[in-house]
Amino acid sequence: MGASRIPVIDLGPWRSGDPQARARTAGRVDEGLRAAGFLLVTGHGVDPGLPARIRAASREFFRLPTPVKERYAVTVGERGWLGPGAEANSYAEGAASPPDLKESWSWAADEPTGKPSVDAEWFRPNAWPAEVPELKPLVTEYLGLMRALSDELLELLASALDLPEDHFTRHTSHPTWGFNVNRYPGTDTVGPPLPGQFRIGAHTDFGTVTVLDREPGAGGLQIHTDADGWQDAPYDPRALTVNIGDLMARWTGDRWRAGRHRVLPPPADTPSEELISLVYFYECDAHTRVESLPAPIGRVVHDPVDSHAYLRGKLDAISVTTPTG
Q1: Is residue 323 domain-resident?
Q2: Which of 4, 241, 248, 296 has minimal Cβ neighbours within 10 Å of its Cβ?
Q3: Cα(36)–Cα(230) distance, rounded to whole angstroms?
Q4: For residue 62, what is the enclosing H or E element?
Q5: Residue 89 included in any domain
Q6: 108: domain CATH number?
Q7: pLDDT tens, 27-76?
Q8: Residue 207's closest CA among 302, 146, 283?
Q9: Which range of residues forms the domain containing residue 56?
């Protein structure tokens, strides 16, 4: 099964409560995640009008003059505007590259735990652009839906491994998460890409599950598998694209592959192509001890890791210290 055959998982049968339907769904999830670490998920219940409205509001912000946006400039892992040149995701794999050709607005977990050292690093207030006040209620609604969907997906993943449904969600009572709205401008804005430069360089995500609402394009998402190399990601307008990250792959002892992916450079033949993606990164409770599930579920026994020491190392790795802009 290559990237072109990533399964479409309809959550309807899973939500029906029918044991046979749920078992069939779980089996297809296991198969898909073993092949590429990606799924297309339909029947999720998210009104497509909501991400469309978030895109429209986000475009209002991204089209503001750079000096206005710079008032909200932050570094990777913070809450606010990540301008052009702030990230180079290929460094998460140890591969040097020019900075990614994108800009983002980034939100993250903001409800304090009451533990000062944890809250100071991982649970701080979010920033909101005053120039686009309609963004806050839209994003707040979307975040609630993504949190609930991510926990449901973790229950489905546990079932796919024949584990109790709360095997992973027992570690998401007060989780961290991140949410990025990524804008990928065309070459008419950023110019031709440098050698080895992408809208987002090749990487795997760092957490448990990522839920992506994407727009298709010539300079769009590609997925890597050992069997087929790089292929354009399949697209279904009804579906959310879901992939697992490094922590989940480690948890399963590499039974499932962290979904390796990249976003192609802006195409030269359609210089005005602009894409906006909504990316929800789900993690787990701060400082969860992630230990590999043993055989016969797992294939590799990794050393246990502190989830958030691992996450911090990855976020630091992709940060470009001197953003250009």
Answers
A1: no
A2: 296
A3: 11
A4: helix 49-62
A5: yes
A6: 2.60.120.330
A7: 999 999 998 899 999 999 999 999 999 999 999 999 999 999 999 999 98
A8: 283
A9: 3-318
